[in-house]
Design a protein that fits this description.
The protein is α+β, with helices and mostly antiparallel strands. It contains nine helices and twelve strands. It is rod-shaped and about 120 Å long.
Length: 321
């Protein structure tokens, strides 16, 4: 066996120490990079000539082996610390911006915190996206005076908030956008019936109903008229059948509310609205001889009613519960 000379042993030790120093340097560099934060990114940029940046590959060359002349090259992986930090900060900024422009229900608001409303002049200006993929609050056309007076809206703007568009689509997914437009148009601007069917539980809620169309549909819109709010807010809208209409009548009876008939222009012209109407199927005819008997719309199980006293309040048919 050949025994290494003192010179060879010393050369081997020096080489080993050199390699050890090299790998320690690599380890230190990796530790430093993995510990990079947003706070010292600027400092690292200032020392770019001394150490590689987080987005550059670090290539280090090991000492040449004296015996073979081989050169060992080591490439360290880059890290995504800076990129991840920047992404997180951008996401946080976007989330904060979204919160600043919407209320707790996700409805768009102005800088002063009030609802951001987009006013339309016709119901037909409500788009399909308003009902299917809502993104805005909408102020609807002004109610007719007789409807406003009947429900006591006092001229408040009638609005639908974005979250109400969303909720109505979820709860009444059988409605198309066209259905919704027709219901809102007919019930809000040409109702036959109106009143409070849950006066005790929800004293500020009013229903307006347009009874059967040519397809046999009754159309209903529920409106909230809270004295604490500056707008008349739509709560929901949908079709109801005759049984649903009868249920509304019973609810009104239980809670001390009223379901009233809003006369048409022809009825007003004929002064027919001075009569009180009883929806009960057992109502008896108490009209004076020769006076024509009226038949109430058959939407409430074809109930018939007779015209009664002529002392009722003007322009309203009152439905006895």
């Amino acid at each position: 066996m050949k025994i290494a000379s003192e010179k060879e042993r010393k050369a081997a030790i020096d080489k080993a120490q050199s390699e050890l120093d090299f790998w320690k340097g690599v380890a230190d560099e990796l530790t430093k990079r993995n510990g990079t934060t947003a706070e010292n990114v600027a400092k690292q940029a200032d020392t770019a000539d001394e150490a590689p940046t987080a987005n550059e590959a670090a290539t280090d060359v090991a000492p040449t082996d004296e015996g073979t002349g081989d050169t060992t090259t080591t490439t360290t992986p880059t890290t995504d610390t800076e990129t991840a930090t920047a992404t997180d900060e951008a996401t946080t900024t976007t989330d904060e911006a979204d919160k600043a422009t919407t209320d707790s229900q996700g409805n768009p608001i102005n800088a002063d915190g009030t609802l951001k409303l987009e006013k339309i002049e016709l119901i037909d200006e409500l788009t399909d996206d308003d009902f299917l993929k809502p993104s805005r609050n909408v102020e609807l056309p002004k109610l007719p005076k007789k409807v406003d007076d009947a429900i006591g809206a006092n001229g408040k703007p009638v609005i639908i908030k974005k979250n109400i568009f969303t909720r109505n689509a979820q709860r009444h997914n059988e409605l198309s956008a066209d259905d919704s437009r027709k219901i809102l148009e007919s019930a809000l601007y040409n109702p036959d019936l109106y009143g409070q069917n849950q006066k005790a539980k929800r004293p500020y809620n009013w229903v307006v109903i347009n009874t059967k169309d040519k397809d046999g549909n009754n159309r209903l819109v529920l409106i909230e008229l809270s004295p604490e709010k500056g707008n008349a807010e739509i709560v929901h809208w949908h079709y109801i059948d005759n049984r649903g209409l009868e249920k509304i009548k019973r609810q009104a009876e239980r809670e001390g509310g009223q379901l009233l008939i809003l006369p048409s222009k022809s009825e007003e012209a004929g002064a027919l609205s001075s009569r009180t109407v009883d929806l009960s199927s057992e109502a008896k005819d108490t009209t004076p001889e020769g006076e024509k008997q009226e038949t109430v719309d058959n939407t409430v199980d074809s109930d018939k009613a007779n015209a009664q006293q002529t002392e009722a309040e003007p322009h309203i048919h009152r439905m006895a519960m």
